[in-house]
Amino acid sequence: MSSSSPAPSGVVTRFAPSPTGFLHIGGARTALFNWLYARHTGGKFLIRVEDTDRERSTDAAVAAIFEGLDWLGLKSDEEPIFQYSRADRHREVVQALLAKGRAYRCWMTVEELEAAREKARAEGRAIRSPWRDAPPPTDPSAPHVIRFKGPLEGETLVDDMVKGPVTFRNIELDDLVLLRNDGAPTYNLAVVVDDHDMGVTHVIRGDDHLNNAARQSLIYQAMEWDVPSFAHIPLIHGPDGAKLSKRHGAQAVGEFADMGYIPEGLRNYLARLGWGHGDDEVFNDAQAIEWFDVKDVVKAPARLDWAKLNFINSQHLRQADDARLTALTLKALTAAGADLPADAQARIASTVPQVKEGAKTILELGEHVAFALKVRPLTLEEKTAKQLSEETVARLARLREHLAAAPVWGVAELEALLKSFAESEAVGFGKFGPPLRGILTGGAQAPDLNKIMAALGREESLGRLDDALASRA
């Protein structure tokens, strides 16, 4: 393929996942940092699927990765590239390296390779093939690999945007394999060719790739191509400081979605893992794009903090559109197999505005709207039934008349009505509030009384109250 058309700023970043499993939370953060830096600089964000490992790459994994990226809102600015389809181009570059004298054919057997590896290890140097400067064998068509011919002296500098300058002694960098004996291109070769052809200017990836940066830099130099800027970001660890694993809980982006986190909440939280803007904890995409610079990413590993994730997500839930939250809550409840009334969507829609401030996730939002989804007549808890003395029933009957006559059924108006009623009865809320709450909610978790009634509406609130009063008549 020809080089990608340049971005307005010249900056081109890329996210290059291997489709051997789900989109890991660490990969999602890498994608986010690439996306943010591209947006911050007015550049382009591209996606390349590194599917050269044919045994482990699956269509299901490809679908899962794109599903995760789409859910997070991280879409490529151009059609995604699939690395395996570019194998001919990779082989073409290897031929160019052979022609330049920067690659050579190696006929070492498995046994010879192992012996050479042990000898190199004992001498504290990288492996060098005896075929590096030898004439070809009698039968040059015999199975062989093609290796990169790296320099034996000097140093390779990776001036990393996160780690700072990192120097590698060339004698310690092995002559890596470019083409396997079946003609298949290797990872380090394919990455360099693809990044060059895609016009990638900034390679932002996990710091487990730092050693690859030196080897890849040498290939760029051998081809007389511009070497991109590298930024190797630290890994994400669990709360205990150990490498993130299954025992720490969710790892896949899809799992976070299933747990009720929303994309903007997770984006905000992931941006804060290893990067920050002063003391700002909660921010929107526009602010993140304005503030983000990859050179501000810290060198130390970040720690997954569930409490902070919940806090940040809760703040974004408060700002989210109520109709969207209604749809998400209904979807979550349906997926959980909840027994829902026919008008569940309408009930949830009227309840979400009253309860969303108390929820950290969509799943919690589902718990908070449960009281509104109960179908009359509600079964009263034993505690509520015991509170319904003759005096309390009479007082609730009087309150019922006040409620029925309320000119406006709103949160503020209902709060004023309840306060006025308590004053007219010369009692505190404790004399009628607890039993009224039990009658209206059936013991389910719920907000303040005025918000409960605003969520239920006039007809449902009075109906639930009438049912309880009739049962005590």
Question: What this model shows, in words?
Answer:
- The protein is mainly α.
- It folds into 4 domains: 12-79 and 235-310, Rossmann fold (3-Layer(aba) Sandwich), CATH 3.40.50.620; 84-188, Glutamyl-tRNA Synthetase, domain 3, CATH 3.90.800.10; 321-368; 374-473, Arc Repressor Mutant, subunit A.
- The protein has 18 helices and 12 strands.
- It has helices at 25-41, 59-72, 87-99, 110-122, 187-197, 210-222, 253-258, 263-271, 285-291, 306-319, 322-335, 344-355, 362-368, 382-387, 390-404, 411-425, 433-441, 449-471; strands at residues 12-15, 44-49, 81-82, 103-106, 145-148, 155-160, 164-169, 177-179, 202-206, 229-233, 236-237, 302-303.
- Helix 1 (25-41) crosses helix 9 (285-291).
- The N and C termini lie far apart (83 Å).
Please sum up the structure shown.
With 473 residues, this protein is mostly helical. The chain has helices spanning 25-41, 59-72, 87-99, 110-122, 187-197, 210-222, 253-258, 263-271, 285-291, 306-319, 322-335, 344-355, 362-368, 382-387, 390-404, 411-425, 433-441, 449-471; strands spanning 12-15, 44-49, 81-82, 103-106, 145-148, 155-160, 164-169, 177-179, 202-206, 229-233, 236-237, 302-303. The chain folds into four domains: 12-79 and 235-310, HUPs (Rossmann fold, 3-Layer(aba) Sandwich); 84-188, Glutamyl-tRNA Synthetase, domain 3; 321-368; 374-473, Orthogonal Bundle (Arc Repressor Mutant, subunit A), CATH 1.10.10.350.
Mean pLDDT: 94
Largest sheet: 3 strands, parallel
Total helices: the number is 18
Shape: elongated
Q: Domains counted in the coordinates: how many?
A: 4
Distance between the termini: 83 Å
Oligomer: single chain
What would you report as the Rg, rounded to the nearest angstrom? Answer: 32 Å
Level of helix content?
A: 40-55%
Low-confidence stretches: none
Q: Just name the CATH architecture of the largest domain.
A: 3-Layer(aba) Sandwich
Query: What structural class is derived from the secondary structure elements?
Result: mainly alpha
Please list the strands of the largest sheet in the order they lie side by side: 1-2-3
**CATH class label of the largest domain:** Alpha Beta
Q: State the CATH superfamily name of the largest domain.
A: HUPs
The secondary-structure element order is: EHEHEHEHEEEEHEHEEHHHEHHHHHHHHH
Q: Please state roughly what percent of the residues sit in beta strands, choosing from under 5%, 5-15%, 15-25%, 25-35%, 35-45% or over 45%.
A: 5-15%
How many individual β-strands?
12
CATH fold description of the largest domain: Rossmann fold
